[in-house]
What we know:
This protein is an alpha/beta fold. It has helices at 8-14, 28-36, 53-65, 79-87, 101-110, 133-140, 150-154, 156-159, 172-178, 188-203, 217-223, 233-250, and strands at residues 19-22, 41-45, 69-73, 92-95, 142-147, 168-170, 208-211, 227-230. It has an eight-stranded parallel barrel with strand order 1-2-3-4-5-6-7-8, surrounded by six helices. The chain has a single domain (8-250), classed as TIM Barrel. It has twelve helices and eight strands. The relative contact order is 0.12.
Amino acid sequence: MAEYRINKALEKLRSGGVVTIVNGVNDGDTAEVFGNLGFEAILAEGEHGPISWHAIGDISRACDLWDVCSIVRVHRNDPSLVTRALDRGASGIMVPHVDTREQAELFAKSVRFGPQGVRGQFGGRRSLGVSDFHRKANENILAVPLIEDIVAVRNIKEIVKVDGIDVFYVAPGDLAQSMGHTGDMGHPDVQQSIDDAIGEIIAAGRIAGTLVNDDSVERYLKAGVRCLGISPAPWLAAGALAFRDRVAAASA
């Protein structure tokens, strides 16, 4: 019989470690690059990006080669979308705009088979040849709801009571917009709301996540955040511009 692949990123979080999610990895080749570099998880962007259902299978297989968690962000907190992404091979799911305890409970049920949840009965490629598949799948799916509206921050004490959620991820962009500060994630009121939400998550004994960059990563780690989202685009731009400038200087 085949062995179910253990979710190493989830295992690391449960043992008190820190996990980094590389955002916007929408093809298998790029997933392998970041897997080779030692990152724990990648995020295939299905809310804002071009990810297709077909591509999820390739991305998840590429991640499996490096024991990387393949997380798919679906565009709505909908059990049918969650089921389909999992059946295509995702080992984690992120859903947007979880604003209430009831919405968090729906998501927690969506990623699991009964009796804990309502995930549709199929299984996809991860079920092939695996004994006791339903139990193992329930234990190995990383569930990440986005706290990205000011109403969610106001409801955070109730949201974090929901079992079956692995990371409560505070997303600054939509949070800023919901507070009337579109495009200004650095606004003091937005930053205070982020800090307040993270503080409540950690105080409840749950795992907090948020988006970081090279300038903010130490601050959030010191605050107790253990799931870090990062966009690789600034790294690519910085490296490309530095090389361009070296060529220009050497050829002047």
